[in-house]
Amino acid sequence: MTTILLSGALSMVIAMLGTRPAITVLRKRELGQQVRSDGPQAHLAKSGTPTMGGLVIIVASVTGYALGHLFTADPMTASGVLVLLLMTGLGLVGFVDDFIKLFMRRSLGLRSGAKLLGQTAAGVIFAILALRFPDSYDLTPASLRLSFLSDFWVSIGPVLFVVWVIVMVIGTSNAVNLTDGLDGLASGPVIMVLAAYVIIGDWQYRNDCTITLSSGCYDVRDPLDAAVVAAAVAGACFGFLWWNAPPAKIFMGDTGSLALGGVLAGLAIVTRTELLLLVLGGLFVIITLSVVIQVGSYKLTRRRVFRMAPLQHHFELAGWAETTIVVRFWLIAGMFVGLGLWIFYRGGIAGIF
User: Fold this and answer.
1) Which of 26, 124, 138, 200 is the most interior residue, by most CB within 10 Å?
2) Sign of torsion, CA 324 245 197 181?
3) Using CA atoms, how far apart are residues 185 and 216, in angstroms rounded to an integer?
4) Distances (CA, A) of 104 to 38, 98, 99, 251, 260
5) Cα→Cα distances 331→189, 324, 336, Å
6) Helix 157-179 and helix 253-270: axis angle, to 10°?
7) Domain-wise residue ranges, the chain
8) Spatial separation of the C-alpha atoms in residues 26 and 221, rounded to whole Å
């Protein structure tokens, strides 16, 4: 528990103090957000706001995690390192996307095929490595079985597992990326889901099958370190949110949104809660579905269901204030996280998996 609290606190301080000089550097180099002319007109005033703030989140998360372990002499684990590796890999893909937008002045950034290739590569590397590094109980960071509250069903085999991880990584990272359309909108829900994973990791550690064999125990390799990772990234997001809250002084960019989506996918995999992530991240699911519905409807009927997608822009064009949308979406995200934790807790004490 000490490592969890220390890593989270250190990450928060590093991000909060480190974002200010990052804003200064980005402004001097004129690395500001390029706003699309076909979006909400209110966003035109945000043109030039420094972006790529996700670099601060990644550095603060990794540094806070490492220092937390160093100060407590608590050893790092394969699960924790791999989740942060996935975060960094997807952050690199996002950085390339942001780099193209800023230096080549192309508002759409990296082409969709190239972005998917980068996300796929990060997912494949994570999937292969996550099936290695067995501990003394022969548990690896990931499992070949699908999971909800823990593993269920039969093994899907290594090939289908890699495909499943790719789907999770691409889906989750893109979902957070779509949500990151208003000041602070993505940061708040991500913090809430990460807070849930701190609780989940700690609960799994206290009910570890290698310590207490019962109907409600968990076969997870490094549950406590998963909680440390969640705390470190949540702390970094919290510190960054100080500057990203409306009106934002800096944006996380694709560097941050893809990286944070990767963390959520990685934590779901190493804690054996892959399908539960759909509940915990319900807001991300809704926003992603709004894009799918909008595109599908237009292609089939040439009619749009929403004024604009993703969903937050629909409410902008309906006249809602940006802060109203952000706070209400945060409330929705909080309700989904609460529901997900209730399902996890009830399933755990009842021994239902």
Assistant:
1) 200
2) positive
3) 36
4) 20, 10, 8, 19, 25
5) 9, 11, 9
6) 140
7) 2-274
8) 40
